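Extended Data, panel c. Modelled sequence:
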Amino acid sequence: MNVNERTLDDEFRHILSIVHRQEPLNKQQANFITWEVVEYWKDNINPGFLEYRKSVSDEHTAIEWRDGTDGGGSKFYGIKGKAYIDCLGGYGIYNVGHRHPVVISAVRAQLRKQALHSQELLDPLRAYCAHLLAKIAPGDLKYAFFGNSGTEAVEACIKMTILATKRHHFVALVGGFHGKSLGALACTSKAVFRGPFVPALMKVTHVPRNDIATLKSVMDGAASSGEPIAGVIMEPVMGEGGIFVLEPEYLQAARDLCDEHDSMLIFDEVQSGMGRTGKWFACEWAGVSPDLMALAKGLGGGVQPVGACLGSERVWGAYIDNPFIHTTTFGGNPLAMAAAIATMFVIHSENLCDAATEKGEIFQEGFAALLSKYPKVVKEARGRGLMMGLEFHTNEIGYAFSKGLFQRGVLVAGTLINSKVVRVEPPLTITRDEIAETLQRMDEVCHEISVKPPRPHRATGAKL
């Protein structure tokens, strides 16, 4: 049947057949679905994203189709059957791998009982999930508000801070990324994201990372001018900003300054939390605890979207007085809570925090070899655990590296602040054989770039 001759009934039947299909596609079927997806993406989502994909991949129409059959593994497959080692990890969501059987089983079991809740009665899994988070959280964090994403978790942290302090001026870091909804966007540091919306954003002063003197000057100055700081928000490991690990002394200074000024310290652990750096939360490496913490990404086990704002008794008081001042329809739903509970169990029972440290060391040894072998290609390797970044000398090299790996079946991507830094964030379950295979392919790409460096082109990260 000609696509243009389909009725609405035909469209529904066709699309639902794709949803239900489990058997492999032949070449003709794969090509047809690819054509449809590209056309509908262009017509009904955003053609600009397709142009971006063309700039960073010769396989810009590659379509994801299914995860690997080894539950909890690191591979997924494109619609034409090509396997990829996932070293992007959905920007940090696949901490326990793709389709971990424990997480899938928990979600399926809950789905057989109840998918969503009535909103009015107490839903049990939300209470159990909050209880478990309080058990593993640093310091005296004990309360949880659940949403569906990292930006929602950050928004909740911002609102809790304003409620607790009755202040509205925040401090964030240059290069920090906290989301793109309006409150989180105000704290994010990149002009291309913030520029069009600046008049609608709350007041945030951005300061350089690891600069204690400047942080102190801003907080002291704000207090002396009658506009004391409500809260200071930072990522213990800056993700989109280029994979920078904040110094323990800086985190402690931020804690001390917040205590001095009765401000709230907010740690955004959306990307660095849930075992990725080798501890449950990256702030634990410095032994510094926040008043509020944002979680998401890996919390849902790569199966359900889950976000959470964790807070201490000190900061939760105003919210307790009015529990309806900040609510959500789908946050904390039974399926999401089942996934989060199972994810925490997997991280704990499979010792994935230790695995992140050990496997991160293997990667870093490989990165050091690349830096030594290709000094005109690779500039620096950094990170902690399995939250890692490779910095190249130019944006073009970063793009070429990502494209070369994609052609060889390894998925990585640049950070949203710049394209010179390529993030490497595989599932914590990645095998040592897969690490060796990935490093070998990285070596091949670096050699290729060293022989034929990429020429400058217009796509240098401006769209990001």
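DSSP finds 16 helices and 17 strands in the chain. This feature is highlighted in the accompanying rendering.
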